[in-house]
């Protein structure tokens, strides 16, 4: 059931491989293995898409495409999960990332004074054309937390994909055997 749904929902290989940034990958973008729908390919694509999709980095779709092509997993599912970080979810993603980072480094959560101090440093750095100091300790805390958060959610969604796929197959199998007398 999950396989039929995904095959009907996913775009065709021709449509995605004709996207501008996919032309960078040339013949690798038409590899049939990155369009194949099976449990392992989808679960690995969910892992890759979730991991890079939760990291608020520029061009994360390119990182997802490179990883999907290199590991030969389902490309459209991975690219669809790039939308995990969007204007509605970025604040909770950053908050949870900073919370995890603050637990790792045993520091207090960010407060108003810390934000104002960093903004003042950035403003001073910009007005002085790059001369000055910007405290990057908060960035270290945030980036560490975001990496841990992305890894936790990627593993969680990977396992949930396997569980859901198995449940779907068993449900379909039971339904098929209940019909027969």
UniProtKB/TrEMBL annotation:
Domain DUF2062: 23-174
Keywords: Membrane, Transmembrane, Transmembrane helix
This protein's name: DUF2062 domain-containing protein
Upper taxonomic lineage: Bacteria, Pseudomonadati, Pseudomonadota, Gammaproteobacteria, Moraxellales
TM stretches of this protein: 45-71, 77-100, 141-165
Organism annotation: Acinetobacter populi
Pfam families per UniProt: DUF2062 (PF09835)
